[in-house]
Give the backbone structure.
Amino acid sequence: MNHCLVQNVRVSAGRKVLLDDVSLSVPRGEWLSIVGPNGAGKSTLLSVMAGLRSSSGSVYLGDIDIADMTPRQRAQHLAYLPQHPEVPPGISVGGYVLIGRNPYIPLLGTEGQRDIEILNEVLEQLSLQDFRDRTLDSLSGGELQRCHLARVLVQDTPLIFLDEPTTALDLGHQQQTLDLVCEIRNQRELTVVMTMHDLSLAGQYSDRIILLSEGQIASEGKPEDVLDPDRLSGLYGARIKVMKVDSDIVIIPTRSQEL
Amino acid sequence: MSKAATSSGLRTPERLRASVILVGAFACILAMGTSLAIGPAGINKTAILRELIDRLPFIEMESGLSPIHKSVIWEVRLPRILLGGLVGGTLAVSGASYQAVFRNPLADPYLLGAAAGAGLGATVAIVTGSGDGIGAFDLVPVLAFLGAMGAVIMTYFLGYSSGARRSPSALLLAGVAVAAFLTAIQTFIQQQNVESIRQVYSWILGRLNTSSWTEVKLLAPYAFLAILVMLLSRRALDVMRLGDTEASSVGLRPQIVRFSVIAAASLGTAASVSVSGLIAFVGIIVPHVVRLLAGTSNRIVLPLSVLFGSAFLAFVDLLGRTLVSPAEIPIGVITAFCGAPFFVLVLRTSQKALT
């Protein structure tokens, strides 16, 4: 069964077309990566799928049109992490992560015991208990990204959208972040959609890849089918080699021999 | 998990500690109590305390105060102190709320034109001779209130017609335009009526010296309603700190929170301005001091702004009426005198961003 269905989505800003008639479906439990060159429309597509940006065309969560959902209903179905999440100055880790419980708390109400329990479970799972009272702006990049993920997890949704979750992280933290997503996804049977710049990581972690180019789907399918050296070279305008190391797919940019 | 971790894990993060509320309440009582005890009439301080206790239910205590002194306490000092407290609390929490919804540490309650609108209203009332700032049928507070609300409503419509739905800064710019326009009209009217310039000027500088129970009763319902709405929105205002897109992704409707909080803060500000004139900087100084001392969460900043705002204005009013006694320094002069340097300090440290 489809968890998320996108039909004929078109978005333009001024005269520029950002997404041109994009349709796709995400089966329940899948990990889908959206890749493509800068300006291909990856983040735009993700925010349309998250119901945060209007478009012509429709997006369905299960069989409900996302346009018919209230923000609260939407936030109980899907959690969205932008590429550069806001870091409010002086906010504590606990206070920040707890904001993810907002869809379950009345507008003028406050958190209940259950919300605090969920907060504590997630902080423990992500080894953040000791950071509970630290301020968010005092954390390192890797710790901060764990807090963002924690906020997404306390939202307790079956569907998670991550916009370039590994940007600005070093090699080790990129891997740790994706390992964590992988672990939690298996544990909670989540559906994950993420946009990625790093083609190797996208290839290694996701079940399926959608390659966007100039607002259109250029290719979609299993990582080894989509990540074809000739196709990538053409789209990215780069010299690219695709290799298999053990069972992992690796995309390597190479230097021109003529220079 | 250790026992300590368990007990710390059970509590809500960013909660308002009882000890901090007690400090705020103590500051209020101290400022108001001192203010009640000090004044040109030189009334015996223990007698004042006895007089207060006598008014408590079921307790009889003879204070030994003369009827004149009693009336100084009950009809002059007390309403003035309560009015100062109400105005200070309302302006401070309105400022904190404006800073939260606009995510701008330098936002103040007069940002959307409330001050300019109130100034115009008061000037019209004064120059047409329909008010002298005293008494129940005085039109000055009424027109000041209408002017302030009118200006904010004008700003809101102007802002939304020019894109405030996409970015709240359109609203701020609309506020600047409306304030400039209304101030121009106000200055023109004042120029045409130089004979009342002194009265207008004294209103603009802000004062509590004409306060009576009438003003307290006039302000109280609006102030309490406004403060209640703002305090109830404190958790939502913390969610708003993520910005509109992320707030909306966790299920909040940022426009609704922004509208209701702006409406409440503007109502409170308009009502305060109408009885006290323009008292500058309270809405900026107090929330920032609270943030520096107690944390940046709106769950902490909003309630404490009410308490410390009340205490601050009661204290400043005490300075205003005692420093050059028997003359008075307008309260707006003192708040601005403390506020302007503070404002610069905030600007200089705002890498530490205080919203």
Q: What stands out?
A: Residues 4 and 193 of chain B are 70 Å apart (CA to CA).
